[in-house]
Design a protein that fits this description.
Elements lengths: L8 E6 L10 E6 L7 E7 L1 E2 L2 E7 L4 E3 L2 E3 L8 H12 L4 E11 L13 E10 L7 E4 L19
Parallel strand pairs: 3-9
Antiparallel strand pairs: 1-2, 2-8, 3-7, 4-5, 5-6, 5-10, 8-9
Protein name: NUDIX domain-containing protein
Organism: Microbacterium kyungheense
Length: about 160
């Protein structure tokens, strides 16, 4: 399994994470720079203890805005820039907060992410959204608490 990077601080670890192949682990880490390979980028816009959310994956389930990262963008910088422009407008600024790092030793045939590590980053965005969405609370009992990235919401 991967060793933590010098700029990472472990916030939470999901050992034997049920959404990963057997033996997989997911770590939520704060970091100053986005690691590679970045697989998904997420933007977190916070206002008064609430996070801006949009429907995800066509299922209608609410989550913070997310975009897949292409192979030519290993740290997700281009993908997050495009997502920020779309959600907060061209004046939006993003700062990397951290990521969920999946660590998988042996991938199952249906596991779509790189092995042994795959990152799913969160950037804090200053400004207000320019698209429609819903504001959900981040406090106790938040409907977002089940999201793997949720421990990062308290680091912004």
């Amino acid at each position: 399994m991967d060793e933590p990077r010098a700029d990472e601080m472990l916030l939470h670890s999901y050992s034997s994470a049920p959404w990963l192949p057997p033996g997989g682990r997911a770590d939520v880490v704060c970091a100053t720079e986005p690691p590679a390979p970045m697989c998904l980028v997420r933007v977190l816009i916070v206002d008064g203890g609430r996070a801006f959310c949009v429907p995800r994956d066509g299922a209608g389930k609410l989550d913070i805005p997310t975009r897949a990262v292409g192979a030519a963008d290993p740290r997700g910088r281009r993908a997050v820039g495009e997502l920020v422009d779309e959600i907060a407008g061209p004046g939006g600024r993003a700062q990397f907060v951290g990521a969920v790092r999946n660590t998988v030793v042996r991938a199952a045939s249906d596991y779509p992410w790189p092995v042994p590590s795959a990152y799913f980053g969160v950037w804090r965005v200053d400004g207000m959204p320019v698209v429609d969405g819903v504001w959900l609370p981040l406090g106790y009992g938040s409907p977002l608490a089940e999201r793997h990235w949720f421990p990062l919401a308290h680091e912004v």
